[in-house]
Design goal:
By secondary structure, this protein is of the alpha+beta class. It has 2 helices and 5 strands; from the N terminus they run ββαβββα. The longest helix is centred in the last third of the chain and has 22 residues.
Length: 106
């Protein structure tokens, strides 16, 4: 699924860009958030959902979608090495944090 044309990238209060159709973060903004989360920068969060096409993200000063983009839909993934690398690092960090908090299941 992709967003119908024409859609545009709106700029939110925090400076992130979101899709005018679905509200997804711009891939470059999501890449930045994932890198910062993976590096352990305070206030940055990345969370997969049970839906393989959607992720949540957050950063300092963003309480909800009224303050900035908080979700990312995979239909906006571009064939981008930087995005893929950031995603791999963010997933690894998420798994580490999850296991640290909840332990591993046997």
């Amino acid at each position: 699924m992709s967003c119908p044309e024409p859609f545009q990238w709106d700029t939110e209060r925090d400076g992130t860009r979101t899709c005018s159709y679905c509200g997804s973060l711009h891939p470059e903004d999501m890449t930045d958030i994932m890198y910062r989360f993976a590096q352990g920068e305070p206030g940055y969060k990345f969370e997969p959902t049970g839906k393989g096409y959607k992720f949540y993200a957050n950063r300092p000063g963003v309480r909800n979608a009224g303050d900035g983009g908080i979700k990312f839909y995979t239909n906006h993934i571009e064939d981008d090495v930087a995005f893929r690398a950031a995603w791999e690092l963010a997933i690894a960090r998420f798994r580490y944090e999850y296991e640290k908090r909840w332990g591993t299941r046997s």
